[in-house]
Amino acid sequence: MTFGQLIMARRNELKLCQSDCARSLGVTAATIKNYEQDLMIPEKATAAKLRYILGLSIEEYYSALEQSALCLPVSKKD
To answer: Is residue 74 classed as helix, strand or coil in its secondary structure?
Structure first.
């Protein structure tokens, strides 16, 4: 499950609309939409609030980021 899929699924489980979630975070509904479409990820402070609002553990959050297209593998230099 990608980051966006996780955010959308958890938000829907909690019966929160994008605008309610956005208001709680101090961002726009368009920003939440971009998170859910894996077009952007939140900055650290916003991510902490988002994890709290959605009840996500740090492990769930970072695991979803790893599955997301946003998280590119780091190339190792030989």
So the answer is: coil
